[in-house]
Design brief:
The structure is a single chain. Helix content is 39%, strand content 19%. It is an alpha/beta fold and 505 residues long. It folds into 3 domains: 2-188, Rossmann fold, CATH 3.40.50.1380; 220-347, AICAR transformylase, duplication domain (Cytidine Deaminase, domain 2); 378-497, Cytidine Deaminase, domain 2, CATH 3.40.140.20. Strands 8-13-12-11-9-10 form a 6-stranded mixed sheet. A hairpin with a 2-residue loop joins strand 14 and strand 15 (361-366). Helix 13 runs parallel beside helix 14, helix 17 runs parallel beside helix 18 and helix 18 (458-467) packs parallel to helix 19 (481-491). The protein is elongated and about 95 Å long. The mean pLDDT is 90.
Length: 505
């Protein structure tokens, strides 16, 4: 039996190779892997000795040879293959252990040049992986070090089973597909076309018990769990993950200490204050009913005073950059409450591409990463907003960006007051927001109102004025803009156009 070992990630490879050698498996290897095995005192045959050809072009060409690929692709139950292998002196390779050049890590390193990145596009590795996976009836392909113990166990028990080889083949093809997709993404950065993004790098990050509802199967792809680490509570659900991303997306808009409360993918309260306890109270006061069973995101560490404030509330998830030991001890007393630590820097730096499924297809777009168009942001009314009004307008605008359309948000410069979301009519969203404020006993006098898209008629703006709003922020761009501006002037409102729309369907 022969195994070919050629790995960039050398985790566990020495121990694995030593076990293989002890079982009488002949080891073939290349470059750095061969060097590591020799230094560990493990007998190994260089691929160059098998091919009779040296590694050339700085290792670019070493395994692309008939004696390697013939050994991998040969069908041992095919008489023609067996005869040709014998004729050309090709030895069968039973196990191929390959993981690929660290392309993704090289791209992530800001010091990497384009030349460095190009050199880390593996060619021979994917060829061996795909060949081995194709011939899985006769070859076991291992791309993940976590399988080393299983391989050894099965070898000691009589041989590697077909079921395992089939499963390893599935993982291998997924591995090369993800690898090529990340290369495609890299080149797509320089292209104005979305064509190259047709290759999406998807790896299973976490299996889920079910989807939005118990009868729907679901799985999480990507690297979400590298951004969010769970400290406590039940496993995350499909809906939890959607809400966590929604909450952090809004929370990341703010530099000042801020608390965001989300329910069913919509913010139901946002507050900012030097004290995160006060920020929470402001957010909670917007809607004191919806936060039950909701998601709370904080962009500052959670201490014991904050933990004591929120402990009595049934919240599905609490998210923060960190938790103090005493806060953690208190919050963990509710066994089902999920406590999540977010890597804020990694979250902010993460590539965010919006992908939505449709019948027999996917809609792919850039993430909505722009708050407003600097050049287009302008006052369009006779009255210019005061400094406080300007800050309140931008605060409301940040929230409106993250509310399902049609979105209407009333706010001051440090808290939301009322939120109307997801209605077919913008006027209905405005009415709902006003009614919720009235139910909560919140006075909207003098506040700012934000609309995620333009007011197609003056009626929505007039309703905001009647509710007490003193200033308005909206994208503009309606054929009736002049009519809406005239209505704002008549009511003494200050209004700004942003030049940017934030639909969320």
């Amino acid at each position: 039996m022969t195994a070919l070992l050629s790995v960039s990630d050398k985790t566990g490879i020495i121990e694995f190779a030593r076990e293989l050698h002890s079982l009488g498996v002949q080891l073939l290897s290349t470059g750095g892997t061969a060097k590591a095995l020799k230094e560990a005192g493990i007998p190994v045959v260089s691929v160059s000795d098998v091919t009779g050809f040296p590694e050339i072009m700085d290792g670019r060409v070493k395994t692309l040879h008939p004696k390697i690929h013939g050994g991998i692709l040969g069908r041992m139950d095919n008489p023609t293959d067996a005869a040709q292998m014998q004729e050309h002196g090709i030895e069968h390779i039973d196990i191929v252990v390959v993981n690929l050049y660290p392309f993704e890590q090289t791209v992530a390193d800001p010091s990497s040049s384009d030349a460095d990145i190009i050199e880390n596009i593996d060619i021979g590795g994917p060829a061996m992986v795909r060949a081995s996976a194709k011939n899985h009836a006769h070859v076991a392909i291992v791309v993940n070090p976590s399988h080393y113990p299983t391989i050894i166990h099965q070898l000691k028990s009589g041989g590697i089973s077909y079921d395992l080889r089939r499963q390893l083949a599935l993982e291998a093809f997924s591995h090369t597909a993800q690898y090529d997709a990340r290369i495609s993404q890299y080149f797509a950065r320089e292209s104005s076309s979305f064509l190259a993004v047709g290759a999406l790098p998807l790896r299973i990050d976490q299996p889920l018990r079910y989807g939005e509802n118990p009868h729907q199967r679901a799985v999480l792809y990507g690297s979400f769990t590298s951004l969010f680490r769970q400290l406590h509570g039940k496993e995350l659900s499909y809906n939890n993950i959607l809400d966590i991303d929604a909450a952090m997306g809004l929370c990341a808009e703010f530099d000042e200490p801020t608390v965001v409360i989300v329910k069913h993918n919509n913010p139901c309260g946002v507050g900012s204050d030097a004290s995160i306890v006060e920020a929470y109270r402001k957010a909670f006061a917007t809607d004191t009913v919806s936060p039950f069973g909701g998601i709370i995101a904080v962009n500052r560490p959670i201490d014991i005073s904050f933990a004591e404030e929120v402990h009595g509330l049934f919240a599905e998830v609490l998210i923060a950059p960190s938790f103090s030991d005493d806060a953690l001890a208190l919050l963990q007393k509710k066994k089902d409450r999920r406590l999540m630590v977010v890597d804020r820097a990694a979250y902010n730096a993460a590539t965010k591409t919006s992908v939505r499924s449709v019948a027999s297809g996917l809609l792919v777009q850039d993430a909505d990463a722009i708050l407003y168009n600097d050049e287009a942001l302008r006052v369009v009314t006779s009255r210019t907003p005061s400094d406080d009004e300007h800050r309140a307008m931008l605060y409301a605008w940040k929230i409106a960006k993250h509310v399902k359309s049609n979105a209407i948000v009333y706010a001051t410069q440090d808290r939301s007051l009322a939120i109307g979301a997801g209605q077919m009519s913008r006027v209905d969203s405005a009415r709902i927001a006003v009614r919720k404020a009235q139910d909560a006993g919140i006075d909207l006098s003098g506040c700012a109102v934000a609309s995620d898209a333009f007011f197609p008629f003056a009626d929505g703006l007039l309703q905001a004025a009647e509710a007490g709003a003193a200033c308005v922020i909206q994208p503009g761009g309606s054929i009736r803009d002049e009519e809406v501006i005239a209505a704002a002037n008549e009511k003494g409102l200050a209004m700004m156009f942003t030049g940017t729309r934030h639909f969320r369907h």
